[in-house]
Design goal:
This protein has 13 helices and twelve strands. A seven-stranded mixed beta sheet has the order 9-8-7-6-10-11-12. A five-stranded mixed beta sheet has the order 1-2-4-3-5, sandwiched between helices. It has helices at about 5-20, 25-30, 80-95, 115-130, 150-160, 185-200, 215-230, 250-260, 320-325, 335, 340-355, 360-385, 390-405, and strands at about 35-45, 50-60, 65-75, 100-105, 140, 210-215, 230-235, 240-245, 270-275, 285-290, 305-310, 330. Strand 1 and strand 2 (about 50-60) form a beta hairpin. The chain binds glutamic acid (GLU).
Length: about 400
């Protein structure tokens, strides 16, 4: 697998070849402020001990406190977390929210843990990092395999240690303990607003065939949102398998099937096929909503989508970007397309600090206005500079970060 941090740095170099920035600024933005890693002793239910490696990378805080999720995954490592933290710095700048970038993780498969083991791990992660996070320092959130329940345990642990029970230390919490309306669906919702803002520019109708890779928080909600808007979800995959139906999948039934069986595999309302083949299904819109390095030099020729919208972080490599751009397939980049998640996270943080609770309608109205403004700006700039949307998004972000540094 390609090193995601190296790919991220190549994206940076490619963007700064289109628009020049002060070289000392670019040098500084290429390094995280701080990388923390260590080991959490996890006592398993059977009495055995497992040492779990954990991370927090605080990439940059010139625009505000470090901000970004926590990933629990068996394959995560410091290079991945560094890349994700760097992308958060750019994403928060694209979203124009007062936050810097950070990311955290633990190398473990949480699906193999019991509920008590998961709670222990979550609380221990927060205990290990309680000194360096905080509402004005670093504000974590969910990412791959981390849930509102996990955020609640972490928020509670931080409250016990510091006495700060505002909840503003972490976002993506359940509503009952300071969560925001709309945070659960915000990543997909933001992606949908971006799609709606740009759809006609890409020549797409209001009844697209949509393929979604990944059926976690982002992918599931995307399926529901696009379906509700009149599009057809023709194929979906999760970490185990894929399922397709040219007439459109019944998403409510598929969600039910996944809940009971643990996977989309063998869903009666479609044909099960290899998850690794999902990306190559013919469609108007392809939504990668899983992990990095999915669309690469070795498989990009097989992509048949007319437009790619990245709800995952880092799903497309720079080489694949070039091939798609040359073919006229727009790639709506992660740092714009999935920025709805961190935007509503920031609304949650603001509500916690002020002791307020905003309605879902208010949250989504604010999100929509903000994210569509950024989307149009990035689109127009890409046209003017004759470059792709990723480079354009990078340039917009870098300009904002550079101003803050000054
Ligand atoms: N993990 C999400 C992301 O990659 C959300 C981060 C947040 O809400 O802070 O953008």
């Amino acid at each position: 697998m390609q090193n995601p941090f190296e790919n991220a740095m190549r994206q940076l170099t490619r963007a700064t070849a289109v628009k020049q920035f002060d070289s000392t600024f670019i040098e500084q933005i290429s390094y995280p402020h701080r990388e923390i890693r260590g080991h959490i002793p996890l006592r398993k239910d059977d009495g055995s001990l497992q040492m779990v490696e954990f991370y927090r990378v605080q990439h940059n805080n010139w625009r505000g406190p470090y901000k970004g999720g926590i990933r629990f995954h068996q394959d995560t490592d410091i290079e991945e977390v560094k890349a994700l933290a760097f992308w958060m710095t750019l994403k928060c700048a694209v979203a124009n929210i007062p936050m810097g970038g950070g990311k955290g993780g633990a190398t473990i498969n949480p699906k193999e843990l019991s509920i008590t083991e998961l709670e222990q791990l979550s609380r221990a992660w927060m205990r290990a990092l309680a000194d360096v996070v905080g509402p004005q320092k670093d504000v974590p959130a969910p990412d791959v395999n981390t849930t509102p329940q996990i955020m609640a345990w972490m928020s509670d642990e931080y409250g016990k240690i510091t006495g700060d029970r505002s909840g503003a230390v972490i976002t993506g919490k359940p509503l009952e303990v300071g969560g925001s309306e709309g945070r659960g669906t915000a990543t997909a919702q933001g992606g949908f607003y971006v799609f709606e803002a740009l759809r006609l520019n890409f020549g797409l109708s209001d009844s697209c065939k949509v393929v979604i890779q990944g059926f976690g928080n982002a992918g599931e909600h995307a399926a529901e949102l696009w379906l509700k808007a009149g599009h057809k979800i023709v194929a979906v995959s999760d970490s185990k398998s894929a399922v397709r139906n040219q007439n459109g999948l019944d998403i409510a039934a598929l969600l039910e099937h996944k809940k009971t069986s643990g996977s989309v595999r063998d869903f009666a309302g479609g044909e099960t096929f290899e998850g690794s083949e999902l990306l190559f299904e013919p469609c108007d819109l392809l939504i990668p909503a899983a992990l990095e390095n999915q669309i690469r030099e070795d498989n990009v020729a097989r992509i048949q989508a007319k437009v790619v919208l990245e709800l995952a972080n880092g799903p497309t490599t720079p080489e694949a970007d070039d091939v798609l751009f040359a073919k006229g397939v727009p790639v709506i980049p992660d740092i714009l397309a999935n920025s709805g998640g961190v935007t509503v996270s920031t609304y949650e943080w603001e509500q916690n600090i002020k002791g307020e609770h905003w309605s879902e309608a208010d949250v989504f109205m604010k999100l929509k206005t903000n994210i569509q403004e950024q989307a149009l700006q990035i689109f127009d700039q890409a046209k003017n500079l004759k470059t792709d949307l990723r480079r354009s998004a990078f340039i917009l972000a870098l300009e904002r970060i550079a101003k803050a540094q000054k």
